[in-house]
Amino acid sequence: MKNLSLLIAVIACLLPCFNARAQYSETVKEGPFVEGDTTFIRKVYHTGPNTYDNYSDNLWVERNHESETYRDYLYSNISFDDYLQTLVVIPSIFTQCDTLAHIGYDNYSLVGEYVPLFRYKGKYYLYRPTQWHVKRMITPNFVVYDYLDGLYPRGMLDFKKVGPSSFRMRVIDGNLYGETSPVDMEIYVIDEKRGIILWRELYGGGEKHDVLFVDVRRAAAFDMIVWDTKELQDEATDIFETPDYEEIIRLGRLL
Fold it and tell me: What share of the chain is helix, strand, coil (3-state, %, to 5)?
């Protein structure tokens, strides 16, 4: 009888926790579908016992290129000069890069800031993420990656034109311990007029990583998919299709 009373007391203590948890729910609505004047690709509805528990995470298409959402992402340019003034750099990297201005003039045709392109249902879009940045910059001396926690420069050791619309470069990939290793990259100009390039990173064993980019100065030709979440969520990149990069290179145009 004593054990039964103890069990009842434990259940009575835990029951409010189970009830509160049961009040929370998450419902996913997949699109595309239109509400008002907005096209949604996905909505994740959250409900709970409190007012602040009721909200939705929205994956939607921004077609207004003058909106704050669009412009904040596209035109928050990398301030690389300001960054260099405050960066505690790996001396060995920048010592080797001092002479890079003498490599040649070929890289000047690609100097600029780039944002990635993603394909959704056969059409290309910009994508505004919630957690990470994927912008890149090419300068006469560096390749710069814009990560969530700041800018990461890679010193350019070599840059040369290897085809009518293709380039190869070797950069120094450094780390906090002062160790460096060269990384080879290839850039294919897919559409010079529209500022579209294919950026290929080459790794050991024949592994490669391809990403399509567009020059920020011409990126406004594309609508933007926005992943708008109240709390940090996994990125919604599962909706995107993988283009046939080899065919894009061969044909010299987007597919």
Answer: 30, 45, 30
Spell out the SS3 assignment of 33-73: EEECCEEEEEEEEEECCCHHHCEEEEEEEECCCCCHHHHHH
176, 196 in Cβ contact below 8 A? no
Triad 136, 60, 48: Cα angle to 5°: 115
Fold of 63-251: Lipocalin (2.40.128)
**Per-chain mean pLDDT for the chain:** 77
Task: State the chain's maximal CA–CA distance in angstroms.
Answer: 90
Domain segments of the chain as ranges: 22-60, 63-251
Residue 203 to residue 197: CA distance in whole angstroms:
19
CA geometry: angle 151, 156, 161, nearest 5 deg: 125
Per-residue model confidence as pLDDT tens digits over 68-108: 889 888 876 555 555 555 444 444 455 555 444 444 445 56
